[in-house]
Specification:
Helices cover 44% and strands 17% of the residues. It is an alpha/beta fold. The chain is globular and about 60 Å long. The structure holds pyridoxal-5'-phosphate (PLP).
Length: 362
Amino acid sequence: MKEMILMTPGPTMVPEDVKKVAGAQPLHHRTEDFYELFSNLNKNLKEIFKTKNEVITLTSSGTGGMEAVIANLFSTGDKVLVASIGYFGERFYNIARAYGLDAELQDFGWGNAVDLDVLEDKLRNGNYKALLVTHNETSTGVTNNVKEIAKIANRYGVAIVVDAVSSLGGIPLEMDEWGIDAVITCSQKCLMSPPGLSFVALSERAWKMAETSNLPKYYFSLKKAREGVLKPNPDTPATPAVSTIMAVAKATNMLLELGLDNVYKRQADYGKRVREYIKSLGLELLPEEKIASDLITAIKVPEKYKASEIISHMKEKHGVLITGGQGPLKGKIIRIGHMGYVTEKMLTKTLEALKDAIDKEG
Ligand SMILES: *Cc1c(COP(=O)(O)O)cnc(C)c1O
């Protein structure tokens, strides 16, 4: 099987050193070696989340982390506002509905960012317990201004929950400083690791909300998971995805050695480079440039091309995997993921493959 270059919004490429760790014999999760590794991971995660609160590791994909936050913070009928700008905003809304919350969807449109004035009006008049919002909307390649959104939520005493599944460890997010109540991410996007884990951090206010939540939870009980993390020999209530824990411990060591600011800077450079290249090919971005994500670029497919053909040409001829649009954007856009472990060589190869596909199809 030939190894593809995954320029997708997850799973992303995994560095050699992380692959080695992920492929090793899994540690037993009730041993000293595991406790030491898990302590190290927990320390790294706090640095990456920029929080002094505990970060909880759950064995699930990112969606499981979103579900855990809903199930642990809220009670039946709680009124929440979901500020959606695409596919993953709608997913958050659907999870909230599935758990019986009184969720309201405020759709700002696929390809737009959250409009801060509209949001402020809603929160001022709405009597919401919480605001749910996506940091980096992977379906449209748009990054929301979460710092400002959190300010507004805090102004009206509304708790703010952020889906940072495709952003944490790639672009700045300061959980404590910005006053965010819950942050969710996962292993297979910016954290350069295989799938299998989600990570959730809660503020003090959110842990208080968890005290009164009446929704059912067992495997995803964050309180129970926190008890494990707080032990002198930290562990998890059930068998975790040990291999992925080993991988993320290694990958987060690498990220922190590199320095988060350097990681952010490299991502910002990549984002800019991809956008410049797209424009030089005569193609258009889906969103306005000022809200365009540095982690994933969504490109409009002109009439004369077919998204599926561009994607399959890049895959078959160049071994580079990119993705198409979701929901209403299916067939209308292509998306290049450039989050996590992306080398200069991978990026250059991807842009050349795109040019070749455009030349050939056009
Ligand atoms: C990928 C992604 C998710 C879902 O993650 P899974 O790991 O596939 O469950 C949620 N939100 C955003 C913004 C994502 O990019």
